[in-house]
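User: Structure please.
Assistant: Input sequence and predicted structure:
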Amino acid sequence: MKSQQNIAVFCASSPQVPKKYFDASRKATEVLVKSGYGIIYGGGGQGLMGAVANEALKHNGTITGIIPRFMVEVEWQHKDVKDMILVETMHQRKELMVQKSSGILVLPGGIGTMEELFEVLSLKKLGKYSYPAIILNTDGFYDGLLTLFQKMTQEKFMRPIHNQMWTIVDEPTDIIKALQSATLWGKDAINFAAL
């Protein structure tokens, strides 16, 4: 029997973001679960993190939370996620999420989400993470970031090939196809790391 693949989902913890992002996050989770993927996420109970967990549980999906102990102490964790791994630091949380995943999905988020995305892209650039990185660009949320990536490429801060490290999708229904068709970024990527 083939073991279940887990997707690490990075997203916002703020409960105050617009409804459209909650809707897209719930749909993205439903799509993953119904396609047989397990979900690894940051363990939170609010914001898009909470929406992801609630939707996974609603559809009887496999979900694992990874959360720093200090967040549990202030009761930020999702109470109904039974598979909750406690770590000591934010770095350990991120490292474990990446280690346990066969791909990442980046939903809209703030500074923490950006940190997670950029760490994975740095690992990919160095050939240390070969799996797909999918960015859900709900209502153009990541358009500004994509413009920055273009500028980085135009001004030689990275090579054009580095733009193949991620896949942009506009709709949750496109996530599975993107995961399945993404080019694995192999160990030879280190050859492209330097300019």
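The chain has a mean pLDDT of 93.
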